[in-house]
Design brief:
This protein is α/β, with parallel strands linked by helices. The protein has one domain: Alanine racemase (TIM Barrel, Alpha-Beta Barrel), CATH 3.20.20. It is built from nine helices and eight strands. Strands 7-6-5-4-3-2-1-8 form an eight-stranded parallel sheet. Helix 4 links the parallel strand 3 and strand 4. The longest helix is centred in the C-terminal third of the chain and has 21 residues. It starts with a helix and ends with a helix. The structure holds pyridoxal-5'-phosphate (PLP). The site of pyridoxal-5'-phosphate (PLP) has 13 residues, from strand 8 and helix 9.
Length: 226
């Protein structure tokens, strides 16, 4: 397992996919998904110049943030689904939350975020594959949630995140991501703070970038299988 090599490889993939779709690779942020991975693994990634990390579990993430607190370059994203009783950890310690899908969580994050800190960057997770069991907001409820969160002073609405149902075929991945791109563009034109689309993982990074993703969330491709 050579984390540095993996990061170089993923960056190459990002550049190629960007050029294929006439995009500037610098518009695309590589987010290293470090869930279940050790602080040693994260240190290796930092040595390779990686500073944006994502965690899925509040307590695990909090411990890593404490461990690396001497390094103020690191930006921490929370990408997991969030239980009500864990919102304070996210509000106090993280920079980004990608999986906002209800008003109750938004209200808690807003009231628990100190106004001395910069606003918490939030992405609304869209349930694009419309599976009943999965988290994310259904399209017909999206406007309502957006209108509620844009008035919350300690949250900054930056855009959307999606986790589509697993699909290995590029064309099918593309069709799903293309729908998200269209939704993103509508909101981007309406709200000046919207500039971020978190989509694409190790398995579908190319289709995601071809459809305008600005953050790709890569776990396996950097740290190996979990
Ligand atoms: C684990 C995880 C990832 C990373 O997936 P890989 O396939 O390992 O790249 C991305 N996004 C979310 C929300 C995850 O939970």
């Amino acid at each position: 397992m050579n984390i540095e090599k993996n990061i170089i490889n993923i960056k190459k993939k990002i550049s190629i996919a960007a050029y294929e779709s006439n995009r500037n690779p610098q518009e695309i942020t590589l987010l290293a998904v470090s869930k279940y991975k050790s602080c040693e693994n994260i240190s290796d990634a930092i040595k390779a110049g990686q500073y944006q990390f994502a965690e899925n579990y509040a307590i695990e993430g909090f411990k890593k943030i404490q461990y690396f607190s001497y390094n103020d370059k690191i930006i921490w994203h929370f990408i997991g689904s969030l239980q009500t009783n864990k919102t304070k950890i996210i509000a106090q310690y993280f920079d980004w939350f990608h999986a906002l899908d209800n008003e109750k969580i938004a209200k808690r994050l807003n009231s628990q975020r100190s106004h001395y800190k910069s606003k918490l960057n939030v992405l609304i997770q869209i349930n694009i594959s419309n599976e009943n069991s999965k988290s994310g907001v259904k399209l017909n409820n999206l406007n309502d949630l957006v209108e509620k969160i844009i008035n919350m002073p300690n949250l900054l609405f930056r855009g959307f995140m999606v986790i589509p149902a697993f699909e290995s075929d590029y064309n099918k991945q593309y069709d799903t991501f293309y729908k998200v791109k269209c939704i993103f563009n509508i909101f981007k034109n309406k709200y000046s703070t919207v500039d971020t689309l978190s989509m694409g993982m190790t398995n579908d990074i190319k289709a995601a970038i071809h459809c305008g993703s600005t953050i790709v969330r890569i776990g396996t491709g950097i740290f190996g299988v979990r």
